[in-house]
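Cross-check.
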Amino acid sequence: MNAKKNTKSIKKTKKNTNNKKDDKNLILIKDLELKLEDQKTKNIKLLAEFDNYQKRTILERENSRKYDGLNLIKDLLPIFDDIDRTINHKDDVNTDSVVEAINMINSKVQNFLSKNSITKIEALKEDFNPVYHEALLQQESTAEEGKVIEEYEKGYLYHDKIIRHSKVVVSKGKN
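Predicted model, tokenized:
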């Protein structure tokens, strides 16, 4: 009979141990499920933040492109003001003061161009260069052949990129 009691006791102990293991496993599973749920929530928040970042970046880029020339326009406004003042006072002043006003405006325009890395392409009395010059015609002249003798429109560079070629007349030389 003692052996039966011992067997029952061992079975009870095993059952209790199994119940304890099952309880520990359930607790561990619940803990892991909570951690998984927490991680899912963090991932969703992170994805939402990234999506907002992308939208904000796109909007900033669009605004940057849209208002890219704002400083350029601000620099031009004083020149426009000077032109308006000159036009409004054309009856009150003599020709010398109008020429002086135009020279002042021209000086401001040159400063504006320089400030914005825009330079003139030198053409007059230079050798014709098709990279920078556009020949409108050739004329006989006392200048040697291939020299630019007249400039109809000035050419301009923005840094190293051509904005507009110089429109020129090229010498054929003496005939």
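Strands lie at 118-121, 133-140, 148-153, 155-158, 161-164, 166-173. The first strand starts at residue 118 and ends at 121. Passed to J.P. for a second look.
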